[in-house]
Design brief:
16 helices, binds flavin-adenine dinucleotide, 7-stranded mixed beta sheet, FAD/NAD(P)-binding domain, alpha/beta, about 35% helix, 18 strands, 5-stranded parallel beta sheet, Polyamine Oxidase, Chain A, domain 2, single chain
Amino acid sequence: MEQRKRIGVIGGGFAGLTAAYRLAHQGFEVTLWERNQYGGQAGTFPVGDTQLEIFYHHLFKSDTSIAGLAEELGIGDRLVWLPSNVGYFTDGKIYPLNGAKDVLKLGSIPFHDRIRLGAVTFYLQHVTDWKKYEKITAHDWLQRALGKRAYDKTLGAQLRAKFGRYYDEVAMVWFWGKIWLRTTSRRNPLDQEKLGYFTGSFRTMVDALVDGCERVGVTMRVGDPITSLEQVRDDKGWSVGTESIDQPEPFDAIIATVPSPVFQTMVPNLPQTYADQLGRLNYEAAVVAILELDRPLTDIYWLNIADDDMPFTGIIEHTNFVDSSVYGGRRFVYLSKYLEPDHPYFTMDDDRLIDEYVPHLKKVNLDFDQSWIRNTWVFRERAAQPIIPLNYSEMIPSHRTPLHGLYLANTTQIYPEDRGTNYSVRLGNDIAKLVQEDLTIFDRSRPGDVSSRLAD
Ligand SMILES: Cc1cc2nc3c(=O)[nH]c(=O)nc-3n(C[C@H](O)[C@H](O)[C@H](O)COP(=O)(O)OP(=O)(O)OC[C@H]3O[C@@H](n4cnc5c(N)ncnc54)[C@H](O)[C@@H]3O)c2cc1C
């Protein structure tokens, strides 16, 4: 009997879980390794008898890959669409920013600048040909379109908040993608925006995928980081090194879904051209503090902060999106900052970071008092946001590495959309298809299908 092809998947975030699920479903023998917890950047931690994301998470209506997978896994009804609202904090004041009417009331810039901002946003909402935005930075395009004063006070401030020292290198494609996604989240621009969330947190979706993987026979190894990957002599596949493996059996293919720098440490002998390609792509890191408060801080879910004196750039008040009754009345606020990993906040002691952050909350709510805080947590991610420079489509590393049987599928390969759980699901779907095609063509014999097992 033909032996089933063996595939190793590294990383149990949405990309790795989806790829493993698809390939095992096709009849391959799949093993998945996750270093830490399933869900990766969309991981959660327990709060009472439910879970909360380590980093704030929601979905847009355009996130059809993840919504489709949720349906397929039988939890479509757990994806709910909840009203949300956005605000903008500048010059010591919160401005609601939920559509054209609010833009016209944005008192931090003169009236004719507001008209210009509204017109530019409206224009971008209707652009579908994004290719032209590969050749110009968001900084140049937006400054020209809005005028320097309005740009500096609004979208320029947001770009600086997200991309730090890279803010004037990011291609306009990235910004266009953001506007476009938000637009498709509202059927009618005058409607209140609704965002998607899984009842029980994103853990619900992660658990469903893990269950799905187990049902189709994926061998799941959590808490078992891959330390090395080695090509077996005479092109006979790949052996993996982890702390727990003593007699590695070779895999026909390996899919790594980890960030590129992590991948490079696993395979130090990557051919130079490919290694250089990976090395040219950068990520912003993120540090996110979570406060549990005994009352609301504001009445806004997503508050962009445009104030250089504030140490964080977003206040995401989760319980203004998901009702606090879900958490037994407990309220959660994320304080978000994207930064370069050499920024002191990225390595600062958690308590010190919270001490630096907390006094600034009085700026958004004069009544705020430290005694409102019940608990705090701090989470960090080194590869939080790929930087998208000009002509990115020519820089994206291919999924097939130059080493036979070794594949890369990570967030730097998501384009032109911005990274997100939906696109990691899409990435997982795409890489599974590619690997399946490659293994089937190389061997001709298709592995057995296990759909009958699924029907059980
Ligand atoms: C602050 C923040 C807010 C976000 N908000 C949203 C949002 O609102 N909506 C949204 O859709 N997306 C959001 N995202 C993005 C989203 O979470 C990610 O794009 C997505 O989860 C990435 O999935 P992935 O599987 O591609 O990568 P990851 O989630 O990074 O998965 C990679 C996995 O590999 C594992 N790993 C690393 N090294 C090893 C090793 N040596 N061996 C084994 N395993 C290893 C990691 O532990 C990790 O689980 C946000 C991200 C951040 C940082």
